[in-house]
Design goal:
Number of strands: 20
Oligomer: single chain
Structural class: alpha+beta
Helix content: 25-40%
Largest sheet: 7 strands, antiparallel
Strand content: 15-25%
Strand order of the largest sheet: 17-14-16-15-19-20-18
Length: 567
Amino acid sequence: MLRSVLQLLAFPLPLSLTISSVSGRSTSQCFTQPGDLHFPTAAELTRFNATIDGRLMNVVPSVKFCQSIGGCSEAQWIDGNFRNDIIGALLQYNWEQDYTSTPPSLCLRNGTVCGQGNVPILGVNATTVQHIQAAVRFAKFHNLKIVIKASGHDYLGRSTAKNSFLIWTRHLLNVTFHDSFIVGDVDQGSAVTAGSGVGLSTLYALTKEQGKIYVGGSAASVVASGGYVQGAGHSILSPTFGLAADNALQFEIVIANGTLLTVNSVSNPDLFWALRGGGAGSWGVIVSTTFRTFPTFNAVYHVANIMVNNTDQVAQLTTLHAKHIFDWDTLHPGQYFVWIATPPTFALSITSIFPNTTISLATSALAPFLNGITSLGFNANITSGMLLVNDLFSEVTTDGGGTLGILGSRLLPSSTYKNHVTQIGQVTKQLFDDGAEGVLVHLVAGGQVSKNADIDSAVTPKWRTAKTHVIVLQGWNESTSPSEVEAIREVVTNTRVPLLSALAGPDGGAYSNEADVREPNFQTTFFGPNYGRLSQIKKAYDPDAMFIVPTGVGSENFDVDTLCRVD
């Protein structure tokens, strides 16, 4: 089915279907776009396509893709795995829209006109290193704006851009296990090398077969060897093993001149430093990443679900949670403490994962907190048990997609939980009183994340002092007008994120993969004191700034669409 679908979109198609004229720009300061003198001709595209085994494709928004196959069912539309196999689709499809141009260019399910929006116009379905190298060199020769996409699970819209040239790594699916992975003369122990199209869920199943586990997230459609690790990569296992970036041993990456580099602590160590926490999409096209693996183990899971009636009760339970968050430190659990507005009520789900322990010990550690919930008059619906940790992750086989929404975030330091417990509950209340749809508190820091402060990488030091990663969510529907969308974005940037920022204080930063793309001081908030060094490494490996993404290194020198220089 997939092959036949891809053939419908395979190049060549009439270019007029997707390319519109753009004029009035200074080509010396901007990437080449359709209508420019040096934009590749149809004949040049045909010749290029012949060099990459016919992998050049016209790229269309996900709604237009569905129209091309006679429609997508609701189940398909929201299925992250289905969306992963569409070259132009993103999980949150608001990033496919161009709400801010005049007129806006939208392709929504309830629309009568389907514009190209912020979706690239051409893409390469790369299945080999040679395809990637040829694509990078072609883009460099023609000064095309490059976008890199593996899964499209991107909360900041960095995997897409208007009038751009997409390199799609979805089908780089090689996986190799190593009993002893050697870097230089040092045995780094057991490891796994995963191509940049391998999803987290797939890798959990494969590591299980080897009796191993690796540090990854809880989303099926995220790839381990993409923006996830470049941004640092948190996991519910991070308190036990550290961040994904802490456990990355080597990268293979095609850089801006088309060269394939092996990057580790011995070979190209400066780029190795940058790739571990220096931000997604800024350094080149990752072919594969090698991650440290660990012997697998059983883990206790504990899930508590609670419904409350108002934001005062939200504040009560959030404050109670903050008071008890250090109770479990000796067991190194990860936890998702998730509030969702379900008007007129609010739903709380608390998922705790305790590695290498017993149900009795985990329950005893949680008992003071759970007793506190009962004392406040709330009833928790509790489920618990024990599973192989790989199976806990593998239960998530797909991610919900096809939605419209944004988020903002902050890393809350341990000092906030020690000194400002009541404020944590009050800020959560304020966010919901202001209309937020969700507040997610991820206990994915502390423990080994803090102990790994001596690792020399681009991970912001704010991760090393953090206790939780807190997210505020806001969505909208397909009937929301562009002006209303802009108002929503302004509220998130100018009201809700500042509430989190004030709560975090000067020791707070943010996780660059799950944050507000309009973060005004992203250089400091995402990268802290590392930004100057990152900028220098960027100039060394990407001197012509071919790999520019919103809030990425060097993006301050470009316009909001990352198409034209403003410096």
